[in-house]
Write the structure tokens for this entry.
Amino acid sequence: MAEVPIINDLIKLHLDRELGREEKTNLTSEDAKESFTNYIVRFVDESQAGNRLTAKETKHAAHTLAGYMKLKRVLDRYQTETGNSTEYDVYSMPYYDAFKLWLTNKGLTLNYVGTLLKDLKVMLKQSHIDGLHENTIYQNSKFKKLVDVMSLITNVKKLQT
């Protein structure tokens, strides 16, 4: 019987298989067909099960995961009402602006809209890290969370008194 050299890549491959981890860089045909909103649901499910941790290796907070599910519902509603796709490749700065305008025209507060945009950015980044798309618009400095400056000033003044 020929000896198999023990190398780090081989050890990692076997450990990943034993721990149920999938290689992130190779897309399977099933992964390639997973919609963005389905990815959000899977991300939340895996996080709740403890199979996905934060960058600090802790479990995601329940309110964080609830925010991701809220984003999923909003994206579904946006697609239904506007006919605009919510798939990975459509996100761009014009799309971001149109989505932001749609949200604010719904009468939502700027802080609420900002939280949705922050969660969108996080989910686009995570799905990119997981190898589901190549769209890096989330890295654009203008693709960011909005903040209601007046409510921030009010909150700071309350804290100072």
